[in-house]
Design goal:
Cytochrome Bc1 Complex, Chain D, domain 2; about 0% strand; binds heme C
Length: about 80
């Protein structure tokens, strides 16, 4: 019984540290994307668009989302396509 508790506890710790590790990999730019670009619709992922279409959309959405010039640039750069 005690062993089972230990197992459950270590499983929980693993899960929690895994979760926070996930949050840490989110770059600041991805944070902006997640926070400012999900107010009106679900998260749109840069990799689902061509570079050109992504840039076009980010520029269109920038005003709606209240992005700074620097944020616009870094969010456009989240699309790694050429
Ligand atoms: C004020 C509300 C609002 C905010 C904030 C917003 N969007 Fe949008 N977005 C919309 C609406 C409405 C549409 C669908 C109509 C359209 O395409 O204009 C849309 C559509 C899109 C599309 C899809 C276009 C397509 O045809 O596939 C993308 C990509 C997108 N938004 C990205 C973003 C990004 C990136 C941000 C953050 C910078 C953002 N949106 C913030 C309202 C918003």
């Amino acid at each position: 019984m005690k062993k089972l508790h230990l197992l459950a506890a270590s499983f929980l710790i693993l899960m929690i540290s895994g979760l926070s590790a996930n949050f840490n990999i989110l770059s600041a730019d991805q944070n902006v994307l997640q926070q400012k670009c999900t107010k009106c619709h679900a998260l749109k992922l840069p990799e689902n668009y061509t570079k050109k279409a992504w840039k076009h959309n980010v520029e269109r959405m920038a005003q709606r989302a209240g992005l700074t010039e620097a944020e616009i640039k870094s969010i456009i750069d989240l699309n790694k396509k050429n």
